[in-house]
Amino acid sequence: MFLLLTMAYDRYVxxxxxxxxxxxxxxxxxxxxxxxSWGGGFLQGIIVFALTIKLPFCGLSILDSFFCDVRQxxxxxxxxxxxxx
Length: 85
Fold this sequence. Notes:
By secondary structure, the protein is an all-alpha fold. It contains 4 helices and no strands.
């Protein structure tokens, strides 16, 4: 999501303000946008991990598919996950 937002800003400036593109999207702005994308993704991942690690798991630990999604992990818990997800 954060990377798509960065790409959308870049395309917006390139299409709507093509003559000012090099001024508005310089190396510093690119570094800030990439850093914000990385930091936002990392923070979101840490929050999801912290919410998931607290959940008590019981019963069979078999997932429905190959990809370990948060919603599938919530199905394996013994508690109400309405507030977490």
